[in-house]
Design a protein that fits this description.
The complex is a heterotetramer, with 2 copies of chain A (about 170 residues) and 2 copies of chain B (about 500 residues). Chain A is built from 1 helix and 16 strands. Chain A is mainly β and about 170 residues long. Chain A folds into 2 domains: about 80 residues, Glycoprotein, Type 4 Pilin (2-Layer Sandwich); about 70 residues, OB fold (Dihydrolipoamide Acetyltransferase, E2P). In chain A, the strands form 3 sheets. In chain A, strands 1-2-3-4-5-6-7-8 form an 8-stranded antiparallel β-barrel. Chain B has an 8-stranded antiparallel sheet with strand order 13-12-9-10-11-14-21-19. Chain B has a 5-stranded parallel sheet with strand order 3-2-1-4-5. In chain B, strands 7-6-8 form a 3-stranded antiparallel sheet, covered by helices on one side. The chains are: A mainly beta (about 170), B alpha+beta (about 500). At the B-C interface, helix 1, strand 3, strand 19 and helix 12 of B face helix 1, strand 3, strand 19 and helix 12 of C.
């Protein structure tokens, strides 16, 4: 079967067949891999690829076809889709907006708000400071833009994922 | 098996890994334990491993772990005759120690007088000065007003530190570069100190540039016998929070060790110190000059480093001494063996400026094998609450030499698997690979000056493996759904072509 | 960080916890590792943690882990320049060590000559005798016939042991009480020896009654430098399988330690011993008489006990010495600190005469905290195959004194949680509570003579808690099905009446 | 609700009500227990009963209503049934036969068979020796009786749960 896997915004076309129970031939990037695959628990895999041994932790996220993969301390998020379904899906998908919502990464207290609505901000510019777990934490603009809506108020506690402000694409 | 218990029952007025540490010590001494917990900590490991557990209030520490009245009440009703405060929370609150005494409960820690004197940084400096211990140059009285400040600062010399007299944990401190900033930053420090500690008093101290943070573990008993357990180096810090410690220090030789140890013991004796404590120094790595910084009147977070190299059980010894037993050590019995490194495993994202992260521990595997100690409050399924310190665990590694200890720490860190929450494990791994750290050439500015913190965009050599894993997983799942074949979950097929070597290199 | 690797790559010709132990040592020395596995071991942890892994055949060891040809082939094809055999399997097969040498691969162990001499018990006894080391009284040649047997037995005196010359692991042995049983039991021992080792040769030895099994860890290098690392006591045995070891022994004083150590070093020197090895003695606990029993020419199962009290890394040292480095220790540098106990965690049912159990590890939590070392081949989800040794893990506990070490071992054992498979953990817990063990008053007959093994019918104090847990679980599940209410999985409600103390006592 | 729990052949009638989320009142053996109950994972419970803290591992076995419970090293098997269903079920249950099947507790090699069909055996008498995991293991008669069918043969390997022989009630 053929799959399209997206990793770090890069798309990979991958073919896979089972040649023995537990043994798979995978075509990826013009190369052929023979993979000895073993599951001990649903998410705890052992892969032996041309003699190299890897332990892989793998979770299918609740949201759908995004896999969370951990290998020796590195984390990957991969979106997997069967080729035919992918083609169908891509026709239906809409473009993403450049609008960035800044939400509280954890509950805490807003100590300091350093911008106001309408301010032009650089990417990486500190927008506000959140005190959480006895620490001061800077929240930075992920992209350059204009502060759209500003919800956070100094001294007011916020919950995890609460909207703090919006950075709109400039111009 | 002691014929008489040291205590009938001990209440642990703390949470997380240090509560577990103390419960383990009590279990080994066959003393039953009582845990207390906030509503946010119902699921915490310390609740599960204690013999008894009582809820003492809502999540904020001020309404639970800092409630002296509730804690004393639980202790009395549950039949405890001793309380161990751990570190943080009530551990350095003299009033709590006094309240325990008034209620006939043993406070497992130093006497209230010693806590009170050392909790006041001006008083602590005076004690050190009276013992002829070099101080960080600066004031021996609290700052009166702006005029006083300008005059004192001019005498001390810039850059200068403004410090809260009653502060700890890096709060109520400001670094001042120029005279024109002084008044403003003194006000800022006063205000932060008031918010954190309820007191505004500050004083000025010279700012020691690029110091090494070296501390001496001391121990006293009720009979005036005081010894030291050599030094720990704690210079790997982030925002005054220690991240990695080691013992011995790479810059402390026998001569300096002797001087630091004697100075620490003199200070401890001067206040009649009668438990475990830590005397902190700033040391100039080149000149070996040292300056008394402050004293912590509690079991140190990093006490396991000292336990590893000296072969002692400081936590258990604290309980024994609190029960009135004499200290089991003479200074001459105490010796180093090998080297130890402690890594703090915090719920923080090291790729994102150590931003603290709450969340659920979905999966957990801890390191094992020779020389590895895991002091942890984690278990699979734990929801880490967002209200407290981000400490999850401490990894303490011992080996015969520093070089071997670093190799072993690296190996142990690679065995960790913590799923569902970001931790400082990758940060610690990167420190263990850092050439400056490996050479022992570092100071308290290490993380800012010698270390590449932001490493989110680093190359991930195993992306290919991740791709292979997910397509096979997806394939098996699709096949199972289609019913075309039955995947074999525990297949034991031999890969005949396993012989072909791949050219790729595994980390 | 060694500039030059000791080896390019090491193949570990073993499985389970000892393979993990060796892989960890290699990782700390930054040497890549190659695992080999049988078809039954595809899921084993050693396959997962090694850098490379190759299947070497079907489940029976004779077709996989004992296949010298296949193992050498894997080593060559994967670019290994050294093989560590662990214990058991090929570790004491002189021919394998020779084959490695012929193929230019370093065998990480002693020279083949030493393996061969010590693998023959008669030859080993001759070596000991030549070094004036007391032997278990008995023959110095193999038994010829029944007449020879009757005559030799009469000289030695009953009870007598018939032993296979080429035997190990307790096979090919018979105890003879009376002359009329001798001929029959000699035949039985010969037959068992032939089945197990392919050789029929046996000899006779006096049966030492109620001995203590005490062994000396020795270490030699290629330059003729031999040292000893003091003793281990291994008298807690079941069917000649060691279950619990400790160091130091409660009956060995400095004088006896010196004598045993010197005797062991003399024997090792006599055969040019150049790696880690163990010289076993039987010791009379009262008279302190000792008798050479045999020598094991490999890394001992129980080497971590010695590592804990001497602060060495014997496994790593073995690799260094095999690479041609001189031994890093002089005898005078080696000293005991504190006390260590090792508990074998076997897949056996201690309530059912240690019947071995295969099965799936459904849940696992391992002990942590101070002084606790976990050497394990377990992980959650592992199917333990039925084909090999029942070793799952070893718990090694260190503390300052024997009393504290027993308390700590008890605490650590109580932290273990292994679900889905019966283990020897409850057995070890009972030994740690046994008054004879606590007093150090035990010998190799301990399990049979001083210990209540069958404990399946013991009182279980927590039955009430089990009843409460299951009814609430059932109630929540029924409610959820009925949709009457939504159970709160992570409720943080405070039990207001938590104040009421229950009169029951928790274990 | 009311349940009947069977543990070690003893029956317990237990009543349970939820008084707050996570807090239960249980009536058992004439006593009332207030139980603070917390689940971290499906099978990993924390119970606080009148201040005493217990960690409990609990599994519902595949076979039905038998719970496997582990508390501090002790193992329990409990059969739980709602009272009404239990009454119904008991009417349908049949008596058990005294016939005992001896099966291999694990795979291994039959080294020695010490009985033959028709032999009278005592309870505890060794019937055969199984070599497994490098160990010799005696298999004993669980009750006195007569050897009915004997399937095991010396030197022949057997798989886990394979029938080795049957002990029929004597007379």
């Amino acid at each position: 079967m053929a799959y399209i896997v997206t990793c770090n915004e890069e798309e990979w076309h991958i073919g896979v067949e089972e040649c023995h129970p537990g043994l798979y031939v995978v075509h990826l990037g013009g190369k052929e891999y023979l993979v000895d695959y073993h599951e001990s628990r649903d998410n705890l895999l052992s892969l032996i690829i041309n003699g190299r041994s890897y332990e892989v932790d793998l979770d299918l996220s609740d949201k759908g076809e995004v896999y969370q993969v951990d290998i020796q301390g590195d984390h990957f998020e991969l979106d997997v889709m069967e080729e035919k379904r992918k083609k169908l899906a891509s026709k239906l998908s809409a473009g993403l907006s450049g609008r960035q919502e800044i939400t509280a990464p954890m509950s805490g207290n807003v100590c300091k708000v350093l911008v106001k609505e309408g301010d032009l901000v650089e990417s990486g510019q500190v927008l506000m400071i959140l005190e959480a777990m006895k620490m001061m934490n800077e929240l930075k603009a992920p992209v350059a833009g204009v502060i759209g809506s500003l919800k956070a108020t100094e001294g007011v506690p916020v919950a995890t994922n609460e909207l703090l402000c919006v950075v709109e694409p400039a111009g | 098996m002691p014929a008489d218990k040291l205590f009938q029952k001990v209440l642990i007025a703390n949470r997380g890994e240090i509560a577990i540490r103390i419960i383990r010590a009590c279990q080994e001494l066959q003393i039953p334990t009582v845990a207390v917990y906030s509503e946010a900590d119902r699921a915490s490991l310390h609740v599960r491993v204690a013999d008894e557990a009582y809820c003492i209030g809502p999540a904020p520490a001020s309404r639970s772990y800092l409630r002296t009245d509730t804690i004393i009440e639980v202790a009395k009703k549950s039949g405890c005759d001793a309380i161990h405060p751990g570190y943080g929370f009530l551990s350095e609150t003299a009033e709590f120690a006094e309240l325990c005494a008034a209620e006939g409960i043993t406070f497992i820690g130093p006497n209230p007088g010693a806590i009170r004197i050392m909790g006041n940084k001006i008083e602590a400096r005076k004690v050190a000065a009276a013992q002829d211990v070099p101080l960080v140059p600066g004031m021996l009285a609290e700052l009166r007003d702006d005029e006083d400040a300008q005059q004192a600062a001019a005498e001390i010399g810039y850059p200068i530190m403004v410090k809260a007299v009653h502060g700890f944990g890096g709060k109520g401190m400001r670094r001042v570069e120029r005279p024109e900033d002084l008044a403003r930053l003194v006000r800022a420090a006063r205000s932060e100190s008031f918010n954190c500690f309820g007191r505004k008093a500050v004083y000025l101290e010279r700012c020691i540039e690029r110091p090494r943070h070296i501390e001496i573990q001391i121990f006293g008993d009720g009979n005036g016998h005081v010894v030291h357990f050599m030094e720990r180096e704690c210079s790997i810090q982030h925002r005054h929070q220690k991240m990695i410690e080691e013992a011995p220090s790479t810059i402390v030789d026998d001569e300096l060790r002797g001087k630091l140890g004697e100075a620490a013991v003199r200070i401890a004796r001067a206040v009649g110190y009668d438990s475990a404590g830590t005397v902190e120094f700033l040391v100039n790595g080149t000149t070996k000059e040292f300056f008394f910084l402050e004293m912590n009147t509690r079991l140190a977070v990093e006490h396991p480093v000292t336990e590893a190299v000296t072969g002692t059980d400081l936590c258990k010894e604290m309980i024994r001494v609190a029960a009135g037993l004499p200290l089991a050590f003479l200074q001459k019995d105490i010796a180093f063996r090998g080297h130890a490194i402690e890594c703090h495993i915090h719920a923080e994202n090291p790729d994102h400026d150590f931003f603290p992260i709450a969340g659920r521990i979905e999966g957990l595997r801890t390191p094992g094998g020779p020389g590895v100690r895991d002091d942890s409050g984690m278990y699979e399924g734990l929801d880490v609450p967002p209200y407290y310190d981000p400490h999850l665990a401490k990894l303490v590694v011992w080996a015969g030499t520093r070089e071997r200890c670093i190799s072993r720490t690296r190996r142990a860190l690679s065995e960790y698997f913590v799923k569902g929450i970001k931790t400082t494990i990758p940060f610690c791994e990167r420190v263990m690979q850092n050439e400056h750290f490996i050479e022992g050439d570092y100071d308290t500015t290490f993380i800012d000056s010698r270390f590449d913190r932001e490493n989110a965009a680093r190359e991930k050599p195993h992306q290919e493996v991740a791709l292979l894993a997910v397509v096979i997983k997806a394939f098996r799942s699709d096949k199972a759904k289609l019913g075309k074949s039955t995947p074999v979950p525990g297949g034991t097929t031999q890969a005949d072509s396993g012989w072909k070597m791949s050219g790729r290199i595994k980390r």
